[in-house]
Amino acid sequence: MQLYTKISIALVAGAVAGLVANLFDLEILRTVLVAIEPIGNAWIRLITMVVVPLVFASLVVGTASLGDISKLGRIGGKTVLYYLGTTAIAVTIGLALSNLIRPGSRLDPEALEGLRSTYMAEGASRVELARDAPSLVDILLNMIPRNPIEALASGDMLPIIFFAIFFGAALSALPSERRDHVIGFFDGVNEAAMVMIHWIMRLAPYAVFALIGAVIARFGLGVLQSLLVYSLVVLLGLVLHVAFTYTAALRFLARRGPREFYRKIREAQLIAFSTSSSNATLPVSMEVAEEKLEIEKEVASFVLPLGATINMDGTALYQAVATMFIAQVLVGDISFTAQFGIVLTATLASIGAAGVPSAGIIILVVVLEQALAGTGVDPAAGIALVLGVDRLLDMCRTAVNVTGDLTAAAVIERSEYDYALKHGS
């Protein structure tokens, strides 16, 4: 049985167990499902453990192997522009659906009051956390680590990526007799990390069952029912973004068959859905890209770590829908100018967003404060409305984020292939 089949079975079994615990109010089953969640968390820690050595080693080897610094700049520039472009499209889809369906006008007043009373305190704490977050300028400055060892120790991805690329570029300038020894060492580190991933992935079905079962058992369907229209708008937007934006990119830019592509990346999508973390899924994404999609290592090792950090298409779309939903409930319609501001803010705020569970809520506060400026509405009140279903939607939008990362790798690889043909290199 294929691993992704085992993971799919575990995911469905965990969801069914959680639903049974809630629908029949089986407290013993609910307690057991919540009690085994640490098994899933331990698995996430295992796979996250491999992220830093894998990303650093693969980026150093990939950058040093390019041999041409101009190629690095070309790949980097195309990657960032592609990610920003697809993020802007995702936000636009979210705004269009929100204007068309108007999920905020369909919320029952009783449900509204219940959500406020339940999640207001937690919403306020998230707002305070977001206000302590660094600005975009600080994020860009912090990309340059004062101490690379400290960045590696803390798992701070943007500084790690910056230093690895810089170090790899410097290696490429050394004479081959000196360069090859260092590249050989990091290539060995990269290969060892891939072996560890193979071992860890054998535990994935058990971890997925524990994670999904605990989420469904804890949250149930009560909150989801009260926010059903809002949740469906987010899910519809995510489906449309994958079905049209990514499929078009695969067909016309990467020149790959979308159906075969999506079949090959199912494993990474399922892990992303289960963990709600782009960073935790990164080792699996890199393995899928190199072994199943046969994307060149030098492209995959650059595009995917960068995507796990700055590509947040699913998160940005969710923020657009959430902002419009909150505005429709608390304020009413907002102007086209404010909506254009949402596109810009959500696109830029996604850069540097941590690829960890619920990071999207923190970015949502930034988008909300811009969109609702001058209305007198406390962002905490808005966050309280959507917090109940955030974990479930986070799983879906992370799967879209990872799909976008792998699609970008395929697009950039094809672009480099076409460039090489055109210039005879």
Would you mind describing this structure in some detail?
- This protein has helices at residues 3-23, 27-35, 37-49, 51-66, 69-101, 109-131, 136-142, 148-154, 157-172, 176-201, 204-219, 222-226, 228-254, 258-264, 266-275, 278-292, 297-310, 313-330, 336-349, 359-371, 379-386, 390-423.
- The protein is mainly alpha-helical.
Beta strands, count? 0
Q: Biggest sheet: strands, sense, closure?
A: none
Taking Cα atoms only, what radius of gyration do you get, to the nearest Å? Answer: 22 Å
Question: What's the number of helices?
Answer: 22
Derived from helix and strand composition plus strand pairing, the structural class reads mainly alpha
Which word captures the global form? globular
Ends distance? 42 Å
A few lines on this structure:
Helix 5 packs across helix 22 and helix 18 crosses helix 21. With about 425 residues, this protein is mainly α.
Secondary structure layout:
Layout: H1 3-23, H2 27-35, H3 37-49, H4 51-66, H5 69-101, H6 109-131, H7 136-142, H8 148-154, H9 157-172, H10 176-201, H11 204-219, H12 222-226, H13 228-254, H14 258-264, H15 266-275, H16 278-292, H17 297-310, H18 313-330, H19 336-349, H20 359-371, H21 379-386, H22 390-423
Helix pairs in contact: 1-2, 1-11, 1-15, 2-11, 3-11, 3-16, 4-9, 4-10, 4-17, 5-13, 5-17, 5-18, 5-19, 5-22, 6-20, 6-21, 13-18, 13-22, 15-16, 15-22, 16-17, 16-22, 17-22, 18-19, 18-20, 18-21, 18-22, 19-20, 20-21
Features:
83% helix, 425 residues, mainly alpha
